[in-house]
Amino acid sequence: MVGIGGSADPGSQSDRALRAVLTAAEGRGAQVRVFPAATLDFPSYRSGAPLPAAAGDYLEAVRTADAVVIASPGYHGTLSGLVKNALDYLEELRTDTRPYLDGRAVGLIAVALGHQAAIGTLSTLRQVTHALRGWPTPFGLAVNSSQVHIDGDGRARTAPDGLDDPATAGGVELLAGQLVDFATRWTRDPSGGGSAPGRGAEPDADELG
Questions:
Q1: CATH of span 2-207
Q2: For the segment 66-111, what is each residue's pLDDT rounded down to a tens digit?
Q3: Positions of the region Disordered (predicted)?
Q4: Distance CA 32, CA 6 (A)
Q5: Distance CA 136, CA 110 (A)
Q6: Alpha carbons 90 and 33: distance in angstroms, whole number
Q7: What tens digit of pLDDT does each residue of 127-173 get?
Q8: Which of 61, 83, 86, 124 is 20 to 30 A away from residue 74, measured at CA?
């Protein structure tokens, strides 16, 4: 499972939310790798341009992943330019057997100072994921950082009183659970023992009407 995004600001809430979901998935048996915002500061994507070494490493990780988590801060109601540029680089996977995010569970996280911006950003992330042929999990995590603060250890607390926030904590666990469940049940393994929805084996000729 590969985590992408967050914000380049040290200790950003979107980065902490991303890591909290990955930690929860790891607790369910997933092998995880994170590409925080600081590692995604690639040049603006141009088709055919030489790939930076860091971008090549990132693309190879996504190529081999069974699930992906994308987290973005909400900037004026949409995802950050840095995260969008990293997703634009997935155009390099267009000729793969699994192009773009095809056949992968994709968990989405949006963090913003307000419900409207968080929900708007989450909705845009869903649209981008669909365009990349990914399978967004039914649940997406939208965090209003004016009311919820995620500690460095991934613990969600209400602001400003610092009480545990069971709603956000439950959302982290729910998202991680859906990602691991999808990847376990549906993602095609190297032996061909499973398949993602819509990617099953071709029927035998005598089964066709």
A1: 3.40.50.360
A2: 999 999 999 998 999 999 999 999 999 999 999 999 999 999 999 9
A3: 185-209
A4: 16
A5: 13
A6: 17
A7: 999 999 999 999 999 999 999 999 999 999 998 888 999 999 999 99
A8: 61
Structure tokens given for 170: 């439950």
The residue extents of the domains of the chain are 2-207
pTM of the full structure: 0.89
- Residue 7 makes CB contacts below 8 A (sequence gap 6+) with 13, 14, 15, 37, 73, 80
As a whole number of angstroms, the distance between CA 34 and CA 19 comes to 8
Strands 67-75 and 78-79: antiparallel
Q: State the distance between the two ends of the chain, measured CA to CA, in whole angstroms.
A: 39
Would you tell me the crossing angle of helices 13-27 and 166-185 to the nearest 10 degrees?
Answer: 50
Q: Residue 117: name the closest of 11, 8, 13, 10 by CA.
A: 13
Place of tokens 């969008």: 84
